[in-house]
Amino acid sequence: MSHSHRNFRVGGSSHKCVMQLINPKLEWDIALHGLLFWASMGFLMPVGIIFVKMSALDVNQARRKALFYVHAFLQGVSVVIATAGAILSLRSFENSFNNHHQRIGLVLYVAIWIQAIVGLLRPRTGAKRRTTWYLVHWILGTAISLLGVINIYSGIIAYRVKTSKGTWLWSILFTAQVSLIAFLYLFIDKWVHLQEQNIPPSSSSSGSDSRSELPVVASDSGLGGAVIVHGETQKQLMVLEPCSKRNALRNLFD
């Protein structure tokens, strides 16, 4: 760690102020650590959640499977990147865990590996343990995503305090990204509902309604005769099939 010495006067006396300056190598490691965890928990994991949410709403089986595999791939890559960031932290930083950023980071690192193992142990659809598995997987994923966003913000603050550099631009860009992902997550829930707004009434129901309003004139030829249906634009001849005795009696007393 390098130091810079400056003299200044207070109340007529001279004082020496010792300012600690960060080693350029350490500053680079801090920036790389933040970049790795942003890529892992701030970008790939939330995007992976978006893909699996899309797969749940897609009716095409091939697309559903493809979206699920994209989700699994992104989550796997994010775990690898987070592991690289954790190794860098252990090798380059003082890990006394006396602040919230380091404590949350430790919890997150353990949680993402538990989540990865839970994902690999996914039961098949219809299995008894499927509901329990889904609940655990969803709770862990949601908690990791929220804590990851919080820890990235605390990391930006820690970087500003450590290096005395402005970080307002990174805060704005990350806030915009989180807002966009949150919007997409909520929009997917409404996508099916939006599509249903443009579907006209079914032709079958409208056709049955129109037929019920048409006048009907029956012939006098008995049960084996015909029914003439008069419409505005056409005339249909519908042949009646003989009914069984039971149906005939039931119709008589209805």
What features would you describe in this structure?
It is found in: Membrane. It is a multi-pass membrane protein. This protein has helices at residues 24-57, 61-92, 100-120, 130-163, 168-196, 203-212, 245-253; strands spanning 2-10, 13-21, 216-218, 226-230, 235-239. The chain is α+β, with helices and mostly antiparallel strands and 254 residues long. Strand 3 (216-218) and strand 4 (226-230) form a beta hairpin. The relative contact order is 0.08.
Helix and strand pattern: EEHHHHHHEEEH
Low-pLDDT sequence parts: 1-19, 203-214, 216-224, 231-237, 245-254
Physical arrangement of strands within the biggest beta sheet: 3-4-5
User: How much of the residues is beta strand, in percent?
Assistant: 5-15%
Shape: globular
Number of helices: 7
Secondary structural class = alpha+beta
End-to-end Cα distance, whole Å, is 99 Å
Query: What Rg do the Cα atoms give?
Result: 34 Å
In short:
With 254 residues, this protein is α+β, with helices and mostly antiparallel strands. The protein has 7 helices and 5 strands; from the N terminus they run ββααααααβββα. It has helices spanning 24-57, 61-92, 100-120, 130-163, 168-196, 203-212, 245-253; strands at 2-10, 13-21, 216-218, 226-230, 235-239.
Topology, pairings included?
Blueprint: E1 2-10, E2 13-21, H1 24-57, H2 61-92, H3 100-120, H4 130-163, H5 168-196, H6 203-212, E3 216-218, E4 226-230, E5 235-239, H7 245-253
Antiparallel strand pairs: 1-2, 3-4, 4-5
